[in-house]
Amino acid sequence: MILLVLLFSFQVRADVAHPSRLSTPSYYAEAFGELGTKAVGSTHPWPVGVLSIGHTNASYQNYGGQPYFHHGLDIRANAGENVYASAGGKVVNIENYAFGELYWEVAILDDEGFLWQYHHVDRKSIPAEIHAAFKNGASIAAGTLIGQVVNWPITTYGERYHHIHLNILDGQRRYVSPFMFLDPIADTVAPVIQRIGLLKNGREVRGNKVSGSYSLFAEITDLILHDKFLVPPHLLQVEIDGAPARTVWNFEMLPGGADEEAQVDKFYVSSMVCGNYTCRKPIIDLGFLGSFPTGPGTHTVRVRAWDFAGQGVAQDFQWLVE
Ligand SMILES: [Zn+2]
Question: Is residue 140 part of a domain?
Fold first, then answer.
């Protein structure tokens, strides 16, 4: 019986894409990067040959435990492919940060003070020179081999999900968008607004009439070098009754800053959203940082969404407050 329970818990654990660290690593204290003073336009090569983007930092994730923002980029690549340090810097960590061979991290502190965490590096492939640099607190040059992509055992949307999960943290340990640090990629597909609707007590209201306190939701999807890995938009704004645009959120940084779990159930509509190996529905509460008019009458919103590459989409929605 005990064995069965152990086997079951291993099974559940192995299905979790990004298990939390047990504690905050001490090397976090070395970060000092600030987005405000980051050299504009200085981007770095990607660490692997990019097949597609599996998830962005904004992606909703729920594998049965606490939901969270994905907080980094899943860069899909072939298993066994070489991983090169995008930015050079001090090797500050090599660690099995969660249970199982899938969860090895190599972390590098770049010269601007940002931490680059490369997750899902195959342990056996991490070169002796990288171990030596970590041991000695030494730096490596950009383009240095740091290991290979681990063989991911899980299939999602018809393909094995081999990937490097890349987090970038600033001096306040906040997760910032790796897109801002990496060379532009050939993303030519704009986000799509699938639908917009009314929310009451956190649930969808059918039709276009509402009263009392309420909110609006929008299901907005994007694709980056893939035809099935739906991801949310990078930037989202609403214009209510022709008023100046209000930003719902800009994913240059997570809403929770250093906490990937904070705000996720406010930004996404918990009763409608999903994000795991079999379901991706980015359904966003447009009232995340502000409310909608409660005065009786007809109201209109123009929802605007952009991907990181700057491609945008807009859609209007009209409703009646009774
Ligand atoms: Zn990931």
Answer: yes
